[in-house]
Amino acid sequence: MNSNRAVQSDHSSEHFSLDPKEQLGAVRDMRARGLSPLGNWHSHPASPSRPSAEDIRLAFDSRASYLILSLQDENKPVLNSFHVENGISSKEELEILD
């Protein structure tokens, strides 16, 4: 991926999806640098920091962490991490270090 900005492929206000070619390019770039993806994140502008039914349905990698940033209360954003496997999500411990 040549830019730091992902391109939304479906232009929906209800959900967000990326171009699969761009995602594959980003993973290839990481691997070329000796890195591996740990997970992904997205925001919920008007809902809580928990996976929606669609988030769970689209969580294809059971090794990944799925971080969700809720902006429901603009004065108090909430970030949580989840493990999703076999259609079941469980909250992960998230520690942010300086």
Helix-strand blueprint:
Blueprint: H1 20-32, E1 39-44, H2 53-57, E2 65-70, E3 78-85, E4 88-92
Parallel strand pairs: 1-2
Antiparallel strand pairs: 2-3, 3-4
Summarize the structure.
By secondary structure, the protein is α+β, with helices and mostly antiparallel strands.
Give a verbal description of the structure.
The protein is of the alpha+beta class. The protein has two domains: 37 residues; 61 residues, Cytidine Deaminase, domain 2 (3-Layer(aba) Sandwich). The chain is 18% helix and 26% strand. It is built from two helices and four strands, in the order H-E-H-E-E-E. Strands 1-2-3-4 form a four-stranded mixed β-sheet, with no helix packed on it. Strand 1, helix 2 and strand 2 form a beta-alpha-beta unit. The longest helix has 13 residues. The protein is globular, with a radius of gyration of 14 Å. The two termini are 27 Å apart.
